[in-house]
Design goal:
alpha/beta, 50% helix
């Protein structure tokens, strides 16, 4: 596959969605054709998963993560692989790592989760947005709607799981500073991995 595959992952409230959008805007300004996507997806499976997270009760942890993987399998076959074959750049807000980290925080065997996700395309680079834990919790408390995964004790386990990851293709991003400084840092890391793009492409963050 000839395309580039970039993923943003991290605890709830860490800024994955915002930084994903900033990088996409910068790359598009540089003239690149970029596919911006997210998991859970907007497919029927993804919508069911999103709705499930807002209910008072959920399926068992292993069943929950298998539903995320079912949504991912559809996402890979219908969106990601076709785009990569066309040579497109993909930037995704969450991917396999979310299943592995959140599932492990639920007490599911990590190796089992990794084996289920092993067949999916590997990202070229994963940005883990990881400000201090208190910053994540402060942001979550400002949300009007909170899902089943956004409770503090659970989020502490999720945070520590992300923090412990060691992978040469993973870059940690502290999103507690200014949005512009963080976006510029992400763009510089992208440039180091894939080659320089013009300064004019840097997104202006208000």
């Amino acid at each position: 596959m000839d395309g580039k595959f970039i993923v943003f992952d991290g605890p709830d409230g860490s800024g994955t969605t915002r930084q994903c959008a900033f990088l996409v805007e910068s790359l598009r300004k540089s003239g690149k054709k970029v596919l911006q996507t997210a998991e859970p997806t907007d497919s029927k499976i993804g919508q069911e998963v999103r709705g499930m997270l807002l209910h008072d009760t959920m399926p068992s942890p292993d069943a929950t993560q298998l539903l995320f993987c079912a949504d991912r399998a559809n996402h890979v076959s219908t969106v990601l692989e076709p785009a990569l074959r066309k040579g497109q750049t993909i930037v995704s807000d969450r991917y396999c790592l979310s299943t592995i980290v959140y599932g492990a925080a639920q007490g599911i065997d990590k190796e089992w989760l990794e084996s289920i996700n092993a067949k999916f395309p590997k990202p070229d680079i994963t940005f883990i947005t990881l400000p201090p834990f208190d910053v994540c919790m402060e942001r979550l408390q400002r949300r009007k709607m909170r899902d089943q995964f956004e409770m503090e004790n659970f989020q502490r386990r999720v945070y520590e799981n992300y923090k412990s990851i060691e992978d040469p293709n993973v870059i940690f991003v502290d999103t507690s500073g200014s949005k512009k400084m963080t976006a510029d840092f992400v763009l510089r890391q992208y440039q180091e991995h894939f080659g320089e793009i013009s300064e004019e492409s840097t997104v202006k963050v208000g």
